[in-house]
Amino acid sequence: MALRFVAQNVMRLQRLGVTHILNTAEGNSFMHVNTNAEFYAGTGITYHGIKANDTEQFNLSAFFEEGADFIDKALAHANGKGKVYVHCREGYSRSPTMVIAYLMLRHKMDVRVATATVRQKREIGPNDGFLRQLCQLNEKLAKEGKLKTK
């Protein structure tokens, strides 16, 4: 089932205990998921949207810190009981890229470990541009000594 259908099913999200939503495909073209803060108003779910395109040219890395901050806040919600649903249209490229960046930025995982961690949970395929951006992030964090060494 495509992630967009779960994102648009508020009752299911509430049953799953989701407290926060990070939509990495905000917008209203067929390539996006047309939800926003108003869509979740009154549900108790905190929303954050990133208007990202799933193209090699799109600079998703410009949103890595913003996404990681939102995921951090979401997980810390209610004394660490927060649950964040990170999604895009299919859950294949944009959202896994954002989760991999989060694991690198906040859990000091190198790009290979972070990617493998996400792949254990679901099939993913970040586009080549996003993979390049994750590799650039890896180089930057390694240079700054911000990655766990084996």
Give an overview of the whole structure.
The structure is a single chain. With 150 residues, the chain is mainly alpha-helical. It has one domain (3-143): Protein-Tyrosine Phosphatase, Chain A, CATH 3.90.190. 47% of the residues lie in helices and 8% in strands. The protein is built from six helices and three strands, in the order ααββαβααα. It has helices spanning 3-7, 10-16, 64-80, 94-107, 111-121, 128-143; strands at residues 20-23, 46-49, 84-87. The chain has a three-stranded parallel β-sheet. Helix 3 packs across helix 4 (94-107), helix 4 (94-107) packs across helix 5 and helix 4 (94-107) runs parallel beside helix 6 (128-143). The radius of gyration is 15 Å and the shape is globular. The mean pLDDT is 96.
Tally the helices. 6
Q: Sheet bearing the most strands, described?
A: 3 strands, parallel
The count of β-strands is 3
Order of helices and strands: HHEEHEHHH
Distance between the termini: 36 Å
Helix content: 40-55%
According to CATH, the fold-level topology is Protein-Tyrosine Phosphatase, Chain A
Backbone shape = globular
Number of domains: 1
CATH-assigned homologous superfamily: Protein tyrosine phosphatase superfamily
How are the SSEs placed, and which strands pair?
Elements: H1 3-7, H2 10-16, E1 20-23, E2 46-49, H3 64-80, E3 84-87, H4 94-107, H5 111-121, H6 128-143
Helix pairs in contact: 3-4, 4-5, 4-6
GO biological process, one term: negative regulation of MAPK cascade
Family: Belongs to the protein-tyrosine phosphatase family. Non-receptor class dual specificity subfamily.
Enzyme class: hydrolase
